[in-house]
Amino acid sequence: MTPPQHQRPSTTEGINAMASAWLARRDKGLTPDEESEFALWRFSDPRHAAAVARLETAWGAMDALREFRPDARVHPDAELLAAPKAAVVLRFPGGTIAVAAAALLILGLFLWLAVPFGGAPRRQAIVHPGPERVALEDGSMVELNTGAQIEVAFTEGERHVRLVRGEAHFTVAKNPDRPFIVSAGIVSVRAVGTAFSVSLAQQSVAVLVTHGRVQLNAPTPTASVELPRLEAGQRAVIDTVSLERPAGDLPPPPTPQVAAPPPVVDVRDLTPVEVERSLSWQGIRLEFIDMRLSDVVSDFNRYNRQKLVVRDRGLDDFIIGGNFRADNVDAFVRLLETSFGISAIREGDEIVLRQSP
Fold first, then answer.
1. Is the pTM of this model over 0.85?
2. Which of 1, 130, 158, 193 could form an S-S bond across to 284 if both were Cys, CB 3.0 to 4.6 Å?
3. Three-state secondary structure along 187-225?
4. CB of 340 within 8 A of CB of 327?
5. Architecture of domain 285-355
6. CB neighbours of 76 closer than 8 A, spacing ≥ 6?
7. What fold does the segment set 132-250+257-278 form as a domain?
8. In this predicted model, what pLDDT tens digit does every residue of 186-213 receive, in sequence order?
């Protein structure tokens, strides 16, 4: 069963439990909708991404133990075949502590996972490349989410792109005399100079406008619903199954005992945070595992004109973990301000970080 998304545990134990449930479900195989839900949960909070990364590392290390002593297949270790030993007794001043040998082995394993060879904490910064980008001949740019595919057919009077599958974000070069049209199934999106994403699913099409406005159309003789115009910050989900049904075949109004069917077109105004979350797959991502704040700041500064500056020496060794868009320094700063008691002061092209009083 898919981990419930309405539960947002805030404790470390709750987040680890949710991450473990998602990874266990992923091992059995996720549907495309579940993959989207997992990605949404993982990137909705940097602590979620950090918990997933820690568990994946730990499980990977456990898998590696299968190859730990390959020579034992040919020359078995006598210690492994010997009868179990009695508990190891450790004597300290003031008392005696008995510890089972197996418990020591397990403890050693977890210490090894937490502190690798050399004794230093495991700190790592991972750069995840951004989506595939396609530059079109008119200067427009298309970003393709994983598995997405498009077909381009430009003419003198029209720029047409067909989304064959998946999700793509379009940044359209302005040309009023040559409209830009994206078709996804039976739905088409008409724009001139704007930015929007289109996601094609088996029974629906979702359109999110990030800049400007677009007009939705359904160029089929069976379409019975007029589709709306969307403004920046609006998202529409079109039920393509209902859209293809002729007007005379529409289902009767629901009775009190029967739930109403989903609307043919569901339009919502999204907050900036919701827009950011919907497009979290875009751009280069930086994943930090137990990194010092000073090192995290250095990595962010490589990708942004506005630089982070740590003016408070007490923050140098502050430990950060999480997954962030490299070009979205504002989201990272909001996290520091709201969750970690760090104040951010903007001074020209710098954002100065200090401990809150």
1. no
2. 130
3. EEEEECCCEEEEEECCCEEEEEEEECEEEEECCCCCCCC
4. no
5. 3-Layer(bab) Sandwich (3.55)
6. none
7. Jelly Rolls (2.60.120)
8. 899 999 789 999 999 999 999 999 999 9
